[in-house]
Design a protein that fits this description.
The chain has about 290 residues and is of the alpha+beta class. It contains eleven helices and eight strands. Helix 1 crosses helix 2, helix 4 packs antiparallel against helix 5 and helix 5 crosses helix 6.
């Protein structure tokens, strides 16, 4: 029974990966049901029963999420091009759908996103994915590395995680102005608190970029720092790397007690190796580092 359920879930997971990989393509019911090798006459109910969303709604949200990331974090595409990529025949239709979902026009969101409605709008999408995204990690996936020290430029985020998007926008704009592209300058996140602390105002996180250059703040609160070298337990996470908490819990709850290791006096951090929407969400990669003595 367990093996059959795992096989069923693997077929459904294949559907989600196909949708994320082909957001610009044909995602009609006939096509998507064929990916999982399910009958098109039953698949819409199977999908809704599994994920709590219809196929059409899931595709809409996935396309809208990519569109909102492009609006908020890039300026390479016009609103019209983003609307077309999101599956809308006209910018006006995209603008109406966007405003209905987020309470802002696409142009207004690009200038100054309101993150709370944005987070709420994608709750159903995240819930749908989490139903099958409960990845099980194993000790074999944890590697112990001697990591060299890395000099970094740091932008601090202090406060409610719901406002993190605004800090990320400022960080991306600053590093673009400084010429520190992710392909040549590594990106790190350093966490000083839990993902959802109580109260939320106590959330603390550093956004970092590796650089040996003198730092020009360009009006931002940027400071120089260092991620110290030393032994680290490293766990690579592939796909849907917005939430690394399950991987962190595995390291602390399962791997660390059984390893006999002791943690070093530096916080948990990650290096982000690929980014959405530059790659589909299921292809994003991050490595989680637990500093060891």
């Amino acid at each position: 029974m367990k093996a059959a359920l795992q096989h069923y879930h693997a077929r459904m997971q294949r559907v989600l990966d196909h949708i994320d990989r082909h957001l610009d393509g044909d995602l009609e019911l006939d096509t998507v049901s064929g990916v999982a090798a399910f009958s098109k006459f039953h698949f819409h109910r199977q999908f809704t029963a599994t994920f709590g969303l219809s196929v059409h709604r899931y595709v809409q949200l996935a396309r809208m999420k990519r569109a909102s990331y492009r609006l908020a974090y890039t300026d390479a595409q016009s609103v019209t091009d983003i609307a077309m990529d999101a599956g809308y025949d006209a910018p006006d239709a995209f603008a109406r759908a966007f405003r209905q979902r987020f309470g802002q026009s696409p142009s207004s969101f690009r200038k100054s996103p309101d993150w709370e409605p944005w987070l709420a709008a994608f709750g159903p999408l995240d819930n749908a994915r989490n139903k099958l995204m409960q990845k099980t990690f194993t000790p074999d996936e944890v590697m112990i590395r001697d990591v060299p020290a890395t000099r970094v430029a740091i932008m601090e985020h202090r406060g409610d995680p719901a406002t993190l998007g605004a800090t990320i926008r400022r960080f991306i704009a600053w590093r673009k102005a400084a010429g520190l592209h992710p392909s040549t300058s590594p990106t790190f996140n350093v966490w000083y608190s839990e993902r959802r602390p109580v109260p939320p105002a106590e959330y603390r996180m550093d956004l970092c970029v590796g650089t040996d250059q003198p730092i020009a703040a360009n009006g931002e609160e940027i400071k120089a720092g260092e991620i110290p070298g030393g032994r680290c337990a490293v766990l690579r996470v592939v796909g849907y790397t917005d939430n690394l908490e399950p991987a962190a819990l595995y390291l602390y709850r399962d791997w660390l007690p059984a390893s006999g290791e002791e943690v070093r006096d530096f916080p948990l951090y990650c290096q982000r190796l690929s980014f959405f929407p530059e790659v589909p969400e299921h292809e994003t990669v991050a490595e989680l580092f637990l500093p060891l003595k």
